[in-house]
Amino acid sequence: MIPVLICAAIIILSTAFFLNYYPPFGQKESAEKRNSYRHLPNYGRKKFVNQIPTSMSMRMADLLSILRDYVKGNPNRKPITPLPVKRVDPASIQQENLTRVTWFGHSALMLELEGKTLLFDPMLGTSPTPIPIFGNKRFSKDVPIDLDKLPVIDAVIFSHDHYDHLDYSSIQKLKGRVKHFYVPLGLGSHLMRWGIGQSSITEHNWWDTSTLDGIQLICTPARHFSGRSLFDRDSTLWSSWVIISNRSRVYFSGDSGFGPHFQEIGEKYGPFDLTLMECGQYDKRWSNIHMMPEETVQAHLDVKGKLLLPIHWAGFTLALHDWNEPIERVTKAAREAQVNIVTPSIGETLRIPSFESLVYENVTWWKKK
């Protein structure tokens, strides 16, 4: 019996050590910092909460059906061949006095406006897990740009701390090239553990605003959750973002289930020239935290968007649907709702002198895979 207890103790201690000291897990905030959140309307019972009830518990029937679907498998969850990628020339960044957006796959993208370069959720690692060798690999063999060849980035903006959005390896390459990080509450503790100075991080609650040389960066609600290890669910905040410059208004949804916050954001800050709206990694069994593609189109309408660019797809397999089902469904729903939608390939830069007058010819590049 004693050897068994010793082995159990070793396993428990090893697990605790791993969870506390393995860098990609990030770092929990101090008790003092957590106590400072207690007065916030979106914080209760030692964790952040959504604006409306958002249960993530499942019935036994749902859990069994998910297990059945995983065992059954879906050969179309991944493309047959690696997805094509257009390389981004670092020298081309901020060479035009235009609003430009470049999608890197999944939710990672670059927005250039008013002479500034902003990165959103720049997860450009190989796999959205703390131990990449065990995770689902990126659909493309490469990423559109080498992070260590980027010019100086004015701002990096994160929506939440899940591994498919906040990536340790990407931060290690980026941290010496970024002037400032804008994040939801609590997420700064991860960045500081990874070597980013506190003075380079600004944390936001929903509706907080920062100003970057005349550009407004507004942290807005989302309907989701957070966490990077077994015991930190909802310990940091999740969000969407509004970007307002003299030239353009842009909305970035982050991850979110459908909810009334879209209409509220549209009433406060719309209309938006461009919405960057999640459309993938969904399932009816967890639709509270990830929209279905048809809801993506409705959310775009609710925030009063003019042009829709779907994100959160074509990066990794994180759900059970076909890899290209999100884009097929969202483009169909957009046509039916007469919504202007653009579907750039990975790494393609859209030069936008005027959102209102520009008409895009959407190429269904994913049908070739």
3D architecture notes:
Counteracts the endogenous Pycsar antiviral defense system. Phosphodiesterase that enables metal-dependent hydrolysis of host cyclic nucleotide Pycsar defense signals such as cCMP and cUMP. InterPro entries: Metallo-B-lactamas, NAPE-PLD, RibonucZ/Hydroxyglut_hydro. Strand 14, helix 8 and strand 15 form a beta-alpha-beta unit. It is built from 8 helices and 16 strands. The strands form 3 sheets. It has a 7-stranded mixed sheet with strand order 8-7-6-5-4-3-16, with no helix packed on it. A 7-stranded mixed sheet has the order 9-10-11-12-13-14-15, with helices on one face. It has a two-stranded antiparallel sheet with strand order 1-2. The protein has 369 residues and is α/β, with parallel strands linked by helices. Mean pLDDT is 90; it is low at 355-359.
The domain tally reads 1
Low-confidence stretches: 355-359
CATH superfamily: Ribonuclease Z/Hydroxyacylglutathione hydrolase-like
H/E element order: HHEEHEEEEHEHEEEEEHEHEHEE
Helical/strand content category: alpha/beta
Q: Report strand order across the widest sheet.
A: 8-7-6-5-4-3-16
Number of helices: 8
Q: Return the CATH topology.
A: Metallo-beta-lactamase, Chain A
CATH class: Alpha Beta
Instruction: Let me know the average pLDDT.
Output: 90
Question: Radius of gyration from the CA trace?
Answer: 20 Å
CATH architecture: 4-Layer Sandwich
Structure summary, number of beta strands? 16
How many angstroms separate the termini?
56 Å
State the major sheet: 7 strands, mixed
